[in-house]
């Protein structure tokens, strides 16, 4: 079954080979302070109106230099038809001073007015070119990032934990088919890719072959298995963390290549059971799992002065020792002494803003 799936997986047409301008509606890069179209149009209208009034004041200041004495309404009329290049010819400058003002001041303003009128079209073309260039640059530079597949409840929680642990938003790529979820992710500063993660071209656009880690968090277990199989095919060295609802599907994910599997339904069930008997335990566990405040479980490299010591006697509350990628609990014989290169799993105190001050 796996071989048949991989054959179909490899036959998918490659979006990865399309030019960047064809990917504007597929890859979403976070934007910075982009004004709404209504605001942009209002600004351009205000600029144009300001130019008309400025030229009218200049013409009215020299109202005696034209074919007839001008009122302010006449000056405003001359300004409008002159800047818009309509030029009826009923009012024209006749003195040397008036003609010089038209050459030096009004003609450059007329050109500026024309540029302002076509500015909206130019802005749209420039914006699309700029986005295509940004996508091209991002695709060349992306590496060692984290790809989160599925931006539902589990995916959003995973992203929140990553951000709280110091991962930059620009180093997280979200893959989903839900446009609403992708807009939320994009507004949070994350890069988004629209499409099904069961397709190789979508995974390649998300940079899975160059990713450091991949979080697989779809809503269905069978989708999680297929996605994990696809990710492992593209990224043999990436660390894959997958979520599954039912425990009987855990071995399928592990066989598909997942390095770590989280069983969401059983974990939630245990929490519910504990909450009915020992609610304080659940409160403490939620505190440990919450990265924003209180206590949290963290991992760090052992310090030089800690080598050879018993982890129980260190200043931090150590829960386990990670050695050569293997986790040893604090009560295991392997965790009796700390060795060079070990990583400590410990309880970290997270300070809030008020405590930091």
UniProtKB/TrEMBL annotation:
<protein>
    <submittedName>
        <fullName>Membrane transporter</fullName>
    </submittedName>
</protein>
<dbReference type="InterPro" id="IPR003148">
    <property type="entry name" value="RCK_N"/>
</dbReference>
<feature type="transmembrane region" description="Helical">
    <location>
        <begin position="45"/>
        <end position="61"/>
    </location>
</feature>
<feature type="domain" description="RCK N-terminal">
    <location>
        <begin position="143"/>
        <end position="263"/>
    </location>
</feature>
<keyword id="KW-0812">Transmembrane</keyword>
<dbReference type="Pfam" id="PF02254">
    <property type="entry name" value="TrkA_N"/>
</dbReference>
<dbReference type="InterPro" id="IPR013099">
    <property type="entry name" value="K_chnl_dom"/>
</dbReference>
<dbReference type="GO" id="GO:0005886">
    <property type="term" value="C:plasma membrane"/>
</dbReference>
<dbReference type="Pfam" id="PF07885">
    <property type="entry name" value="Ion_trans_2"/>
</dbReference>
<dbReference type="InterPro" id="IPR050721">
    <property type="entry name" value="Trk_Ktr_HKT_K-transport"/>
</dbReference>
<keyword id="KW-1133">Transmembrane helix</keyword>
<dbReference type="GO" id="GO:0006813">
    <property type="term" value="P:potassium ion transport"/>
</dbReference>
<keyword id="KW-0472">Membrane</keyword>
<dbReference type="InterPro" id="IPR036291">
    <property type="entry name" value="NAD(P)-bd_dom_sf"/>
</dbReference>
<feature type="transmembrane region" description="Helical">
    <location>
        <begin position="100"/>
        <end position="125"/>
    </location>
</feature>
